[in-house]
Design goal:
A hairpin with a 2-residue loop joins β2 and β3. The radius of gyration is 21 Å and the shape is globular. By secondary structure, it is of the alpha+beta class. The chain starts with 10 loop residues before the first helix and ends in a 6-residue tail after the last helix.
């Protein structure tokens, strides 16, 4: 169904709206789980305090990266962390921010993930200040090495895909170690040995969040865990699922745009046709299933069912080893992350295709919030590794890990 109007902009449609997960049963605690150690984990009760104010503030700060970073820092002081009994609330909040503005979700998520990594390493978060990023990508022609000496650990080399590095204060960053593996380090980005390239960022999506290469010259760093810890901790998988929550929040917003446009057209006397109804029905199925999946996975994490190890050192090594496939082993958080991310990515791409096709070119050309959301989300979801992740999951499935 092609829209004849150039823009649909009722005040109600633009009001920030939270994303909530459907309620569902929680799995009982497992041996050695948090549930058995501390008692049953209660379901999330109501919205997070200040949620409405936060979403209003995010809506007012769209495009203002320093303001959004400030809001992310504030959120980091009060938001729950994954695996601590309220993972669903965390993912709902991430999805809700991304539903207001996908780029805002892209700003919030790495800061919250960095705080979770620091906490999982045993770091006391009370003195932690500033805006944080997580830089773990590798790329051709760029290598960052960590050398241990009398002065402690020093970082030398380059790291690609460092989003917003010039505006951040600190980062959790992975580097190659003398032992031949990779480890995570906390680093001060204001050190004089840190220099940031000007990103050649031509993307139409996430325009306010350029990613570029950062160079390190004898920069002191604090190691977080041992070699391979960053990838083998269950939080690596949990963080990857938090990114999927942001993707899904963006898809919810795109779908709301579509539903609101149909309502507005009906108000002008143009009732939806069968194609529009069919598309909206398919979108409802897709989003409801994905939201339920995230809710169930969050409950499984909090009940201790996804507390095992992730990739032993890297995704490739995990593909080769297959993780712990012993009979009766706990479900791997890494395999579940691959399922969640793949399922959500497919849902997002289908929603984007349906809405873009049915709404036609006019809103993409003339409705700025909608066009921005579509471009931002299309780029953000490309963080998913698509068939490469499915290949990893297929290897795990062949070795006997699937829940079916």
């Amino acid at each position: 169904m092609k829209e004849s109007s150039t823009r649909t902009d009722p005040a109600e449609a633009r009001r920030p709206r939270a994303v909530t997960f459907p309620p569902g049963p929680r799995e009982p605690g497992r041996g050695g789980s948090r549930a058995e150690a501390q008692g049953p984990v209660p379901p999330t009760a109501g919205p997070h305090p200040g949620q409405d104010r936060l979403l209003d503030a995010v809506a007012s700060a769209v495009g203002d990266v320093p303001a959004l970073l400030s809001l992310a820092r504030d959120a980091g002081r009060t938001w729950p962390q994954p695996g601590q009994g309220n993972t669903a609330a965390l993912w709902e909040l991430l999805a809700s921010v991304a539903a207001v503005d996908v780029a805002a979700g892209r700003i919030f998520e790495p800061h919250l993930d960095a705080l979770a990594i620091l906490a999982q390493s045993g770091r006391d978060l009370r003195p932690v200040e500033g805006a944080w990023g997580v830089f773990a990508a590798e790329g051709p022609g760029a290598r960052l090495e960590a050398k241990a000496g009398d002065a402690g650990v020093l970082l030398d080399g380059s790291k690609p895909w460092c989003s917003l590095a010039p505006l951040l204060d600190h980062a959790v960053i992975t580097a190659h170690t003398d032992a031949g593996g990779r480890a995570a380090f906390a680093v001060d980005l204001h050190h004089p040995g840190v220099t940031c390239d000007e990103p050649a960022w031509i993307a139409r999506g996430l325009q306010e969040i350029p990613s570029g290469t950062v160079h390190f010259n004898q920069v002191p760093a604090e190691q977080l865990g041992g070699d391979g810890w960053y990838f083998s901790r269950p939080g690596f998988a949990w963080g990857g699922m938090g990114v999927a929550a942001c993707w899904l929040g963006g898809a919810v917003a795109v779908s709301r745009d579509y539903r609101d446009s149909l309502r507005a057209a009906a108000g002008r006397g143009r009732e939806p046709d069968q194609i529009a109804f069919a598309s909206l029905g398919e979108i409802d199925r897709i989003l409801t299933s994905a939201l339920q999946y995230l809710a169930g996975t969050a409950a499984l994490i909090d009940d201790g069912g996804l507390a095992g190890g992730g990739p032993p050192a890297s995704a490739n090594e995990h593909l080769q080893s297959g993780g712990d496939q012993r009979p009766g082993a706990e479900r791997s958080p890494w395999s579940e992350a691959l399922r969640v991310r793949g399922t959500v990515a497919a849902a997002v791409e289908r929603v984007l295709a349906l809405v873009s096709r049915d709404r036609g070119p006019a809103p993409l050309a003339f409705d700025e919030p909608y066009a921005k959301r579509m471009a931002d989300l299309a780029l953000y979801v490309r963080q998913h590794h698509a068939q490469r992740d499915d290949a990893q999951l297929g290897a795990l499935t062949l070795k006997g890990e699937p829940p079916w």
